[in-house]
# Entry
Amino acid sequence: MSTQLLPMLLLFSAWSQHLNDCLLSPQNPDSSGKKAGEVVVLSEDWRDDKRQRTVPVRIYAPATGDKLPIIVFSHGLGGSRDGYSYLGRHWAQNGFVVVHPEHEGSDRDVLERGAGAGNLKKLEQAAADPRNAMNRAQDVRFVITQMIDKVQPGAKDSTSVLKGRLNTAKIGAAGHSFGANTTMLVSGLQAGLRIPVTESQKDARIVAAVAMSIPVNRIAPEALDRMYEDVRIPVLHMTGTKDSSPIDLHGPETRRLPFDHSDNSNRTLILFTDGDHGVFAASPEEGSSRRRILDRLRSTENYAPMQAVILESSTHFWNSWLKDDKESAAWLKEKLKERVGQLGTVEHRAAGEK
# Structure
């Protein structure tokens, strides 16, 4: 495998923290919200005694406000709770509590520890292990339960800054790449990438989802219809015309297939022209193996405007479905195509529409 291909594995970009801070600054609100507010960042390690598994989390929460919807974000292969902070902070600044769990078995330890650290083969093995796909979905379900149980007004073991401030009837799921596969599993997908999932991992508490760069195998259309037929919540899909990785050799065009075959979902697709796999991620804190690979990435001039669209469109989407915001719902229908402009294309399909 050529070393020039290794950067394509990374589920995030080498975007600088300076630009990341600019995008997240309270002085740079977009059409999706008012002037952004202060964000509280918490890191905790939660123990799932039933599965004998620790789930580290990073929580981004508004410093003030109540009736706050919850979003659970799932990182890509080899990632961690530290990554994708530009999303967590931005969504929190706009009134959402965002939880980034770290998925043991497919997290940064795959790259950082053991013999052959940073090896492509280790990433491939982690992606192909069906236990990782199942554990990831169960991590998300566990995190939702924890958020509901830990922050109730009468809870003894609580994250005090969030106690009594959540709207637990409004929960969203989001993810990138392998994390987008996780997102679709908890949203109703009946099988994952290369993995025959026999037991549904759907979580009925999730009411909307944002999925970026969903990995998909090339299989018969009727099989895809069956796989996605139980995805019945609204989903914002995002991908790019150059969104490929050597860990799945099926081509960037396959990443729109979940949009095409989720016939029972109200769905929107943003397809970025020349958008690659890394455009959906930014990471200020990474391990040494990732930094070495990130150093080989070539940033493009389109990353900044594309990431601005990612932030704005996803926040409008969350506003619409998690806050019942009619203005954001109208923006998605009437203004999103104009906002994307020459950066790509936008498609909308209603539930029941092919």
